[in-house]
Amino acid sequence: MVSGLSFQNISNKNQLSAVIIQGPVYSSIYQQLSPQLTYCITIINSTDDSARSFQIDVFTNVNSMPGHTFFMNLKSNIENDGHFYTDVNGMYLIQRSYDKRMKFEANIYPMITEAMIEDDKLRCTILGAQSTGVTSKLGVLTLMIDREMYNDDGKGLEYYEASESHPSHLKYRIIFEAKMPLSDDFNRKKRVDENKSENDSLPMNMQNTLYHSQFVQQILEELLYPAALFSSSNINSTDDNDMISTMIGLPSIPDNIQLITARYIAQKTILISMRQLPYDCSVRSYSKGNTNLV
After folding, report:
1. What is a single Pfam family found in this protein's UniProt entry (predicted)?
2. pTM above 0.85?
């Protein structure tokens, strides 16, 4: 969806046929909707918890459309009645409400990593690998994707900097989770109320806050810090000592690489999973007895 003077759907006159890739681990569909927008949807071929989420990759290049803003609509049957949640610096979720008395742009809130809508039966969470703006009406989450400015608005970067829009690769994860039955939720709240209300210990301005589930936290970490895979076939046995010697023999890697697991996947073959953590490796590390940090 594109917003210039008014909202309009992207014209499909330049739309290309979809390309489908199927595999034993995951399947993807790619499609170019316009010269400015291409998307990819990836689902995991599994029956475990990981299959409850799917990834959307959006590729944008809007430098040929000044004065336009691109949005993505996620439609669902969730009856959220204009209420939605956004995260506060990735720590917790706070409730927002769509105010019909105000213009559309006045109802857009910052989404640092997460936005969520829910009703009594279902919760839909969308995670972003990059910050954006979001709003929601009945059952619809609307995310800002990209935009190209006509000129400087006088409130930030100079026009030359603000007018540059480079091609972008945006990553999102969408998760659907069934809500706890009302009877179970009532019993849980009753047990809490026997001691102290959940909200009694919270400041007044935090009584409309929520936290995401452990599963959403797992998906968020996978989105922000994707794992990398390495394999080695130069193994003569399945002895643990050989595995250790193989790992020692790997080329040196930066210290912001975290080992997830190392295991045999076949005879003489080890699979090593790693992820890259986002911290600066150029600073001098502190060690006991080393006080020269200048």
Report:
1. Glyco_hydro_38C
2. no
Domains in the chain: boundaries: 19-178
* Cβ–Cβ < 8 Å for 279, 256: yes
Q: Residue type for 69, please?
A: T
Question: Which residue shows structure tokens 């929520």?
Answer: 210
pLDDT digits (tens, 9 = 90+) for 68-105: 788 899 999 999 988 999 998 877 899 999 999 999 88
Which pLDDT tens digit goes with each residue over 259-279? 777 788 887 788 888 777 666
Report residue 5 as tokens.
Answer: 């003077």
E strand or H helix at 259: strand 257-266
Dist CA 128 CA 144 (whole Å): 11
Tokens 């029956």 -> residue:
47
Q: Cα(90)–Cα(96) distance, rounded to whole angstroms?
A: 16
